[in-house]
Design brief:
The protein is of the alpha+beta class. It contains 4 helices and 6 strands.
């Protein structure tokens, strides 16, 4: 049994591609629609820490609310940025995937391949047609 969790936004192509890559291993992950069911402060802090990335790397700067709140300003401390992410979950960058091999923000979606404990079962193309995995389940070099 492989335990994989994805913090997913079904409206996001990168998130959909990441979910499909996980499923291409034969595993059905635990899917958390974080816009509907946001993580608690403790969960979000743990997720961010597990990625090893700075808080700012996990905040989605392409959202209008990011600019409206002036979040690009360096004055905001990490705990304040986390507060904004909790109030406005759309600011949480996605998808975040948790496996036994690590936790990553999977942008681009191929990042998930680094933390999947099982191999790909067959060919995979992204929604835009880009080939990522060949028929033998091997990653196609870029």
């Amino acid at each position: 049994m492989t335990d994989i969790t994805i913090y997913h936004n079904p409206k996001c192509g990168t998130s959909r591609n990441t979910l499909a890559l996980i499923r291409n291993t034969g595993v059905e992950p635990r899917v958390i629609h974080y816009l509907e069911t946001p993580p608690s402060r403790e969960e979000l802090v743990e997720l961010i820490a597990a990625t090893g990335a700075p808080v700012r790397d996990l905040i989605r700067s392409k959202q209008d609310i990011f600019n409206e709140l002036g979040l690009a300003d360096a004055k905001w401390r990490d705990d304040e940025l986390i507060d904004f992410m909790l109030v406005h979950p759309v600011l949480i960058n996605r998808p975040i995937v948790v496996t036994s091999m690590g936790t990553r923000l999977c942008r681009p979606s191929e990042v998930v391949l680094d933390i999947l404990p099982l191999p790909q079962l067959g060919a995979f193309n992204k929604e835009d047609g880009e080939a990522v995995i060949n028929a033998q389940g091997q990653r196609i070099p870029v």
